[in-house]
Amino acid sequence: MNNKRQNLNVEAILVHLAIIFYGLSACYLYYRQTLWTGGAVFESDLPVHIRMVIVDGWYYSLTALVYKLLYFLPDGNLAIAIFLAGCTMASVYVTTVLLQVLRGFFANEAKEELQLFMNVRRQNLYLFGGLALNFVMPCYVTGFSDGRYIGMQSASIWHNSTYIVMKPLAIICVILYLNLLSKIQEHFQAKELLTFAGMLALTTAVKPSFLTVFAPVMLIFLIVDLVKRVPFRRLFAFGCCVLPSLVVILIQNAILFGGSTGEGWMIAPGAVLRQHSGYPAVAAALSVFFPLLVALFHWKDTRYRVVQFVYLMGIVGFAELFLFSETGKRAQDGNFMWGYSFALLLVFTMALLTWWKSLKQLIGLVVGKPVGGRDSSEAKAKVSGQSIQAWTLAGEVIVTTIVLGYHLYCGVLFYGRLLQGVSYYMWT
After folding, report:
1. Per-residue pLDDT at 369
2. Mean pLDDT of 201-229
3. Distance from C-alpha of 157 to C-alpha of 160, rounded to nearest angstrom
4. Range 351-358 average pLDDT
5. Distances in whole angstroms, Cα of residue 372 to Cα of each of 367, 378, 379, 391
């Protein structure tokens, strides 16, 4: 037992070391990006974001204030790189928490326990899952998009600094929201509502993309709960948590799309998706191939609220990406993609949990003991049924594991090439 415990502790140390190594490599990447002045080598939005505040004095994101403070340190570029690397590592750890929260929420609704092996090992798996979820990228197939990232959609992004900072904050918002949603039949505590409202406003101040996807889904759930006769005053108080963020987003809208900027937005179905793909539907499907397969195998899970929440986030995010486009100088930037990119993280997280559940069930069927006596016809029927179920589950797990593996391969390859200085456009 002691040896087994030691092995599990070694596993935990190795996963933490992998996360630290990831953070250090991200720091190197971001530092090289801060030095970018043109061309394809270490190309990034980061120098543009720094210049917007240092040179132009343009403040639309809270990150501008952070850059302003850090840039005037002895090595401002390195300080900014360390800050972004910290946000990148934070994303891994809060994704680990998100996995546990979604698993608990789902297990409570499904009236089942999704325990995986031993408690310590399960915690190690959550850590590894959190790391893996920050690397998944679209299943790239040559010819369907202009590049491994361009023309497709991904939750794993390393070139846009405001998204990098928004990501861990948005995950915390989701965790806080789910905590409140689980208490919708009870009385909320004022400090819980204020904490959620404050975190939502902070996240929006960094980048408004999360709110544009999250707020519509929250509104849908509020309406559904009102129909279910949840007290209006409680729902009203819950909904008011979004008001500070709406004020923030109105200010940002005036800065980004004010009359003097010459910028704006329009309804242009499919315009953004067609910019870098001749097959936008195929590219979009390949971007979420693993979650699509899992959803097909487990379509009955949509009866659970947490699954509905995750899928609605994905649907609303994709609808925004599909319908809207900017005008002016940013017409080619695809900035309505960022909300969907974050929603993809939730979709992949839910899919990974469901995949883990199927894997556990398959292991149970494979190593489980036959039911009943050897000569019992009833026992033989049960064994036969278990055998059919095992083969069905095996097919599902094999197919989804291969696809998940390719998502991860594409992400690790993409990140490795970024570290070598290859542009995030990455045409091949």
Report:
1. 47
2. 95
3. 7
4. 92
5. 16, 8, 5, 21
| Alpha carbons 82 and 186: distance in angstroms, whole number | 42
- Residues 29 and 159: their CA atoms lie apart, in Å, by 9
The DSSP code for 325 is E
* Residue of 359, 382, 417, 339 whose CA lies nearest to 170: 339
Mean pLDDT of 378-389: 55
Per the confidence metrics, is the pTM higher than 0.85? yes
Question: How much of the chain, in percent, has pLDDT values that exceed 70?
Answer: 89
H or E stretch at 60: none
Q: Which long-range contacts (CB under 8 A, 24 or more apart) does 257-263 make?
A: 261/328, 262/328, 262/329, 263/326, 263/327, 263/328, 263/329, 263/330
Residue 70 contacts residue 86 (beta carbons within 8 Å): no
Decide if pLDDT at 32 tops 90. Answer: yes
Query: What is residue 186's predicted lDDT score, i.e. its pLDDT?
Result: 83
Assigned token pair, 402: 């291969």
So what's the pLDDT on residue 31? 95
Distance CA 366, CA 205 (A): 51
Residue keyed to tokens 């292991």:
363
**Rounded to 5 degrees, what are φ and ψ at 267?**
-90, 115
d(CA 138, CA 291): 11
Q: Which residues contact 118 (CB under 8 A, 6 or more apart)?
A: 8
